[in-house]
Amino acid sequence: MELENLRMEHMTHGFNPLPEDDGQRDHSFDMLFAVAYVSFQELATRVSHRNTGKACGDPIADRMLQRVAADENLHMLFYRNIVSAALDLVPDQAMVAIYGIVANFVMPGSTMPNFRRNAVLIAKGGIYDLPQHMDEVVMPVLRKWRIFERDDFGPLGEMYREKLAEFLAQMDVKVARFTESRARAVARAAAAAS
Fold first, then answer.
1. Tell me, what's the pLDDT at 24?
2. What GO MF terms are annotated (predicted)?
């Protein structure tokens, strides 16, 4: 019952994946933010569902979650292709949206009560964590879009590509810290168990 109440509360309040408006955003391109968001979010959901299936140890649940993950992948491909076309048609505006989403990404459940606590448990369980987010979601999508190989950005797109590169460099540091922290925790747990 508690889970259903939380779900209903979350659905009632809704979720807006767009970053806060800085007062300079051209709202005629908000759709680009939305499809950029779901390009990453659908892949993140695919990864987490697939890992949940593996972790649960139940072959039926694993197969069910494989199917859900496959559906999530189809959704991601659709949205990723829309953003790819946007990069060809309006590269600067698409780059602004991509940066805005990558730098401010949160999962839809982030507004639910106890989300941070649950996210820690999910990360500890190997379901979804920062290294997975960067290595299995963000970077593959950016590579597919050839973000750092493109030569069709104007000054605005170039500026946001540089901001994205700086953000990714900061994330590399956070991923390294996370990985080191997890290794220490695993070592402590192993020492305590022996």
1. 66
2. metal ion binding; stearoyl-[ACP] desaturase activity
pLDDT per position as a tens digit, 95-105: 999 999 999 99
Contact predicate 55/127, CB 8 Å: yes
Q: How many CA atoms lie within 13 A of 77 on its CB side?
A: 6
- Compute the distance between CA of residue 63 and CA of residue 54 in angstroms, rounded to an integer: 9
Task: Find the DSSP H helices in 90-145.
Answer: 91-103, 115-124, 130-132, 139-144
Provide the residue ranges of all domains of the chain, joining segments of one domain with +.
2-12+26-193
Query: 1-11, pLDDT tens digit by residue?
Result: 777 877 777 67
Residue with tokens 């800085």, as numbered in its chain: 22
Strands (E), the chain: none
What does the pLDDT average to over 18-29? Answer: 73
**DSSP H or E stretch at residue 4:** helix 2-13
Assigned architecture for domain 2-12+26-193: Orthogonal Bundle (1.10)
